[in-house]
Amino acid sequence: MLSEQTCNELNNQSILLTGASGGLGKAIAIQISKYCTPKNLILSGRNIDTLNDIANECRQYQKQKQKDHQDDNEGVHVIPADLSNKESVQKLGESAIQLCSSSSSPPSSSGGIGSSSSCCVDILINCGGISSRSDFIDTKLDIDERVMQINFFSGASLAKILVPGNSKSNNSSTSSSSSKIIWISSVQGLMGIPSRTSYAASKFAVQGYCEALRGELASSNISVHCVSPGYIKTNLSLSAIKGDGTNHGTMDDATSNGSDPTDVAIEILNTVCGVAGIDIIGGNKNDFVVAATLSAKVAIWLRLLCPGLLQNLLVQRYEKAKKKKALLQEEEEEDVVVAVSDKKID
């Protein structure tokens, strides 16, 4: 469950969460609603029906904690958005500002959009994303661009929209809770895995952006946290995009055996919102979070200490996957030939 320290950081805060319609994003939304009382919890994703179902579940948790609440809808909101569309991302940021600025009222269809200078979004959680499954030579450039837009540029755009209204000096901040940018990256943003070139590039971009942004905002009341989960048991591989733009449509073994999204959500929130300790190289432990298994953490250390060994292991994994794929294709082709032959005989 979420710690008391975590809830103290999230209570009475306005939170914008992308990727909330499933997987890790849904788990984060449920955990926040179950244990904390945010002023506004804004859920965003593409599937409006799924978002509404999750929002209703969140409202039930909130209602249990606030028996005298008169408006079940207050506090949990839905703003659908397509992160692959720049205009949709811009509208999401502006709508979130307007919603929070109007004290928990839904955005008005006739009213003006709130400016960044009046921003009331305290916490941005960039959780929306897409994975890729194809060799670089088989991947169209527009697919690379699409993955980068969803995984990186959308989050950067939201930060640019929301940060100006929150970037006050630490000295002038009267709140015990600082504003936060929590960006869900990946272990694959720390080491590139073959057949994931687009995905790795987007997640490496997130890592570098967060490091640079953290330095720029160091004197403000905004903290920047980059989270690198390992494999999580979600639909990420099923919905992954191939080089030609079609869905991968397959649950990878590593994903099906991945961590439970609820466990990962709890680890992320408790670590990011916990008391900031100092790591062995002098940085805050909750600025850079690796929410992954021991084997993934070992691989990260191998990249730093024995990069050649890690590279050899990744090449072996890649070659093994290629052989498995080739065998499956041969079996499928044989099945087609047999089916055609049987049809001719009939």
TrEMBL record:
Name used for this protein in its record: NAD(P)-binding protein
Xref: Pfam families: adh_short (PF00106), KR (PF08659)
Assigned protein family: Belongs to the short-chain dehydrogenases/reductases (SDR) family.
UniProt keyword annotations, A-Z: Oxidoreductase
Domain Ketoreductase (KR): 15-95
Function: Putative oxidoreductase.
Organism: Fragilariopsis cylindrus CCMP1102
Gene3D superfamilies assigned: NAD(P)-binding Rossmann-like Domain (3.40.50.720)
Gene Ontology molecular function terms on file: oxidoreductase activity
Cellular-component GO terms for this entry: membrane
Record lineage: Eukaryota, Sar, Stramenopiles, Ochrophyta, Bacillariophyta
